[in-house]
Amino acid sequence: MSGLVDALALLCTVAGLVAGLIVLSASRVPLLALGVALEFWTAAGLLRLAGPFTWQRLATAAAVVALRRLLGVGLRAGRGGGAPPRWRVRAVRASPLRARGR
Amino acid sequence: MPDAALAEGGRAVFELLSEETLRNVVDVLVRLVESAGAIVIFSGAAIAFVRFVVVAVRSRSAADFVPIRLDLGRYLAIGLEFQLASDILRTAVAPTFLEIGELAAVAAIRTALNFFLAREIREERAEVEEARAEAATPARPG
User: Which of A21-30, B22-31, B46-55, B75-84 is predicted most confidently?
Assistant: First the structure.
């Protein structure tokens, strides 16, 4: 059980790295790519916590949670008053859903 | 004679529901619920990864990645609920103080993450709605 959980967690860690790079190369928005990678790394941390308890696993999971919060605060601060980023507004404007009035 | 049979039956029931048996049953339940949480989390990550790759190949638009990230967050939240349920089950059998401390630490991390995750999903969704509303307003000429 522990070996399987560790293998799945490792897969999630690698998936986070690859997905982050894919999003970065496709969107050219580094913070979005970092957010995506952190999401996968959170999944990896949670999977590790499902295995046998060690303080190191707990510290890793806590560090990822803290990093997520830090990133969230940084994203909002860098955006200036919580306004949506320009790429998101542009993307929604170009979206076919807008033409249908949804 | 019936008293002796009653006493024998009572002893059998007590043995059946002994602390050892209860501990074993709870242990199996904890493993089941925790495995369910792990399966949900890993499935969510796998599905999100495939969707990220597909979107990166097809559209390459930053806005298309956000709903996938939100969905992954939802999977994580559901998996966390399962894991918190297993933590609650674990408290059914009172172990040593050290084990209670470890359980408290893990439960605290999971609860904090669940709280922040739910808040992030809510904020992100509100932001997408805000962007949609802004996009729906007609652009000024010039």
Answer: B46-55
Report d(CA B90, CA B103) in Å as an integer.
8
Which residue of chain B has the CA closest to A18? B49
Q: What angle do CA B56, A68, A41 make, to 5 degrees?
A: 55
Cβ contact B79:B44 at 8 Å: yes
- Give the tens place of pLDDT for each residue, B56-107: 988 878 888 888 988 998 899 899 889 888 888 888 776 688 878 888 888 8
pTM: 0.75
Q: Which amino acid, one-letter code, is at A101?
A: G
**Contact yes or no for A89 and B131 at CB 8 A:** yes
- How much is the ipTM here? 0.74
CB B72 within 8 A of CB B48: yes
The CA-atom distances, in angstroms, between A12 and each of A21, A26, A41, B76 are: 14, 20, 7, 12
Does A39 sit within 8 Å of B65, measured CB to CB? Answer: no
DSSP string, A58-71: HHHHHHHHHHHHHH
* Total residue count of chain A as it appears in this document: 102
Tokens (6 digits) for A27? 């969107």
* Helices first, then strands: H and E counts in chain A: 5, 0
Q: Which residues in chain B are contacts of A36 at CB distance < 8 A? A: 52, 65, 69
Q: Could you tell me the residue ranges of all domains in chain B?
A: 2-135
